[in-house]
Amino acid sequence: MEINKKKEKDVLIVSVSGRIDAVTAPDFEKNLMESIGAGEKTFLLAMDHLEYISSAGLRSILAIAKVLKTKEGKLVFAGLQGPVKDVFKISGFGSIFTIFDTEAEALKQL
């Protein structure tokens, strides 16, 4: 798993590639929690290059969203592909979170 961050306006864009599974989910969660601790409130998770997400990855996303909610933050997603998109649909994450087709589209709305 690789995580890259860039800041655009008040939005922290977090690009995730590879896999978020039982092995990498704790690092993913820790990385984003550190950004929240540093004062970030609006996150756009760009998942164009994410190949796989497990239940551990979904759990990490829920934990991050829960902390953001207490800080009146926001978490949105963009670029879900193939199996990751399917997992979001099946798990119901599509109805819990706002999901955009592209990063540009998401930035317009934030």
Which terms would index this structure?
110 residues; alpha/beta; Transcription Regulator spoIIAA; 5 helices; globular
What is the number of independent domains? 1
Order of helices and strands: EEHEHEHHEH
N→C terminal distance: 26 Å
The CATH superfamily label reads STAS domain
By CATH, the topology is Transcription Regulator spoIIAA
Mean pLDDT: 97
Computed Rg: 13 Å
CATH architecture: 2-Layer Sandwich
Strand-helix topology:
Elements: E1 2-8, E2 11-20, H1 25-37, E3 42-53, H2 55-70, E4 74-78, H3 82-91, H4 93-96, E5 98-100, H5 103-109
Parallel strand pairs: 2-3, 3-4, 4-5
Antiparallel strand pairs: 1-2
Q: Could you explain how this protein is built, in words?
A:
With 110 residues, the protein is α/β, with parallel strands linked by helices. It has a single domain, classed as Transcription Regulator spoIIAA (2-Layer Sandwich), CATH 3.30.750. The protein is built from five helices and five strands; from the N terminus they run ββαβαβααβα. The protein has helices at 25-37, 55-70, 82-91, 93-96, 103-109, and strands at residues 2-8, 11-20, 42-53, 74-78, 98-100. It has a five-stranded mixed sheet with strand order 1-2-3-4-5. A hairpin with a 2-residue loop joins strand 1 and strand 2. It starts with a strand and ends with a helix.
In short:
Helix content is 45%, strand content 34%.
